[in-house]
Amino acid sequence: MVLYSFYIFDRHTECIYSRRWTPARPASAGSKTTRPQSGSSITSNGDATPAQNRKQADDEKLIFGLVFSLRNMIQKLGGEDDTFLSYRTGEYKLHYYETPTRMKFVMLTDTKQNNLRPYLHQIWANLYVEYVVKNPLAPVEHPGGIGVANEMFERGLEAFITAVLPA
Amino acid sequence: MVVFALFIISKAGGLIYNREFHSGMNKLSSNDLLMLAGSFHGMHAITRQLCPNPPTNPTPSSNLLPTPFHTRATGLEVLESSQFRMQCFQTLTGTKFLLFTEPQQPNTEAVLKKIYELYADFVMKNPFYTVEMPIRCEKFDRNLDGFVKVRG
């Protein structure tokens, strides 16, 4: 399976963590070697050009606006207790999970993937809560993504993704 | 099979047809529906822009003329929520058909194709219909009803 990108948005509409594996890593290549090399996040994309950075920042804002509007549309049509799960286009699929505290977890994969909501929930419960919320040195809020992309979280995410979403 | 509703959105983003078959979704005022259609039109364009691997145009082989149709990323096709599933079909001219069904509904794509056929037959071939305007064609309504009820 192909994984394109992963985002976390906090309740203030800010993207506090992003990680992308684009341009698409070859689906056939061994996952263990390709993933760490091509990964980039807010803290580790120092080698990207300014234009690429700008495009990434734009994408983050677009995705936030999009899931926010889709969620509102769904609540309008299906009632207050309806939740947005995912959408699919001809090229990719977006999975969505929102915690009770309005944090949003978004993952973009190829179209053949079933719903990844349980996995996003696990990332929140087992990685985000464990390594970011319970970290005494991390701030309560994460303006600009401070305190989220720590080593434990990055490594845990890497291990989780290679374990449950084999390439 | 439970089909909740059908919307048709013109290429400019206006709601030109809406029809409810089964209750199950919230009743919205026509103003709200128009707003919803307009914002969906925009969201559809954004989903197309966000494509992480845009399709490339096939290189024309030597004995064929290059195709005038560009392969572009399609926008949103299926939207899933816990209460319903929305299938979107966009025609080559930009008209969008939205079909709201139960979450576990199979084969919605084929249903939409058939509805598109009905649209072509009873709306586009109606000499009194002006394009981009709200659809008021009795025959289309009747055939649509018949089709959805037979499947249901």
TrEMBL record, chain A:
Major subcellular location class: endoplasmic reticulum
Chain segments carrying region Disordered: 24-56
Gene Ontology CC: one annotated term: TRAPP complex
Record keywords, A-Z: Endoplasmic reticulum, ER-Golgi transport, Golgi apparatus, Transport
Cellular compartment(s): Endoplasmic reticulum; Golgi apparatus, cis-Golgi network
Cleaved signal peptide residues: none
Database matches in CDD domains: TRAPPC1_MUM2 (cd14855)
Composition bias type Polar residues, residue spans: 30-54
GO biological process: endoplasmic reticulum to Golgi vesicle-mediated transport
Complexes and interactors: Part of the multisubunit transport protein particle (TRAPP) complex.
Family listed: Belongs to the TRAPP small subunits family. BET5 subfamily.
Name this polypeptide is given: Trafficking protein particle complex subunit
TrEMBL record, chain B:
Stored Pfam families: Sybindin (PF04099)
Gene Ontology biological process terms in this record: endoplasmic reticulum to Golgi vesicle-mediated transport
Location relative to the cell: Endoplasmic reticulum; Golgi apparatus, cis-Golgi network; Golgi apparatus
This protein's UniProt keywords: Endoplasmic reticulum, ER-Golgi transport, Golgi apparatus, Transport
Top-rank lineage group of the source organism: Eukaryota
Gene Ontology CC entries for this record: endoplasmic reticulum; Golgi apparatus; TRAPP complex
SUPFAM superfamilies xref list: SNARE-like
Assigned protein family: Belongs to the TRAPP small subunits family. TRAPPC4 subfamily.
Subunit structure: Part of the multisubunit transport protein particle (TRAPP) complex.
Protein name: Trafficking protein particle complex subunit
UniProt source species: Lentithecium fluviatile CBS 122367
